[in-house]
Amino acid sequence: MPHQYPIQLRRADMDAYGHVNNVVYLSYVDEARQDMLTSATGGGDLGENVVVAKHAISYLSPLVYRPERVRVDTVVRHVGDSSFTLAHEVRDDETSYCRVESVLVAFDPVAGVSRAITEPERSALSGLT
Amino acid sequence: MNPATVTVEAPHVFHCPLRWSDMDTAGHVHNVQHLRYLEEARIDMLCVLAPKHGVSTLAAGMVVAQLDIEYLRPLAYRPDPVRIESRVTRVGNSSFDLAHDIVDGEAHYAHATSTIVAFDVTAGRSRPLTGDERALLTELGEQPT
């Protein structure tokens, strides 16, 4: 069951082409990831202390501002030693607008280096496949 | 905006200033902002450089279909611009691929590739690239001598 996060669009998300700007989709995903990591790990620090290693973004369909929300569906594709892969979809019931696959690395902010994913985190992430 | 300069490093170089507010709470440029820098470089290539070479039709209707980015080193705000080095890696029938590197004298911050599709905005569908567009894009794939 994917994590689902509603996103309220803003008219100013659109650029001169009259569509939500490419870069803005990533901010929707950013917010959904934050919510997923914080709630899935029971408020643990994985939400704050991760670094994005890479994104692969596919723009599928243009999105025009409307008051009805879109949502970001997120599943966990893979959990490694200190990194994990998420797959996100920005969509509504009719249309898939954008897909993003991201590799995140768990980070120790004090030591300034990556850290191992803990067993409780691993278990929580594995529940979101 | 700074004009594109053709250097031995890449067919297209764009000097991109950072904004202080690009940084997030970790004190590094937020992962979303790198895409803004790439967008600026792409606009410079297609809307500033291309018309200077007589091709004005790449300035509108260019749709990003795919963008992959790897974050290699964190980037902090500083007044000096970063350099976005870009080149065309594929010219297709109605689309082309770009490769970008965000660098400066010290470090390689990110590498990205993208696929851009030429759209006929009125018809609402992709259109073939013209001969002039293909020629210029091909030139932007070669290392200048």
UniProtKB/TrEMBL annotation, chain A:
GO terms for molecular function: fatty acyl-CoA hydrolase activity. Pfam families: 4HBT_2. It comes from the Bacteria. InterPro entries: 4-hydroxybenzoyl-CoA_TE (IPR050563), HotDog_dom_sf (IPR029069). SUPFAM superfamilies: Thioesterase/thiol ester dehydrase-isomerase (SSF54637). This is Acyl-CoA thioesterase. It comes from Haloechinothrix aidingensis.
